[in-house]
Amino acid sequence: MKIHYLCDCCGDPIDILEVEEIDEAKLGFDCLTGEERQEIIRFDAGADAMYVHSLCDFCIEAMGLADPGHNPAGNSLLH
Ligand SMILES: [Zn+2]
Q: Is residue 50 within 8 Å of residue 41, measured between CB atoms?
């Protein structure tokens, strides 16, 4: 399955990961609430892909969110 990271702000692709199975703890999804997951993660069963909405570096900077403390979801998903 491919995991596509997309910028939620400008729509740019950030990164694509190829994984054999979704390991939520490894991807940092285990610390999201159910609501956050629904907002951030989309599955496309037909394409065997998962789309994760995050923020690209450009938008993080443009929004003044460079301090990781201000955007825990977006930043933790990128590492
Ligand atoms: Zn962006």
A: yes
What separation in Å is there between the alpha carbon of 58 and the centre of ligand 1?
Answer: 6
| Domains in the chain, number | 1
- Ligand 1 centroid distance, CA of 31 (Å): 23
pLDDT tens-digit map of 38-51: 999 999 989 999 99
Residue ranges making up the domain that contains 69: 2-76
Q: What is the pTM of this model?
A: 0.72
1 alpha-carbon distance from chain centroid = 15
User: What one-letter code names the amino acid at 75?
Assistant: N
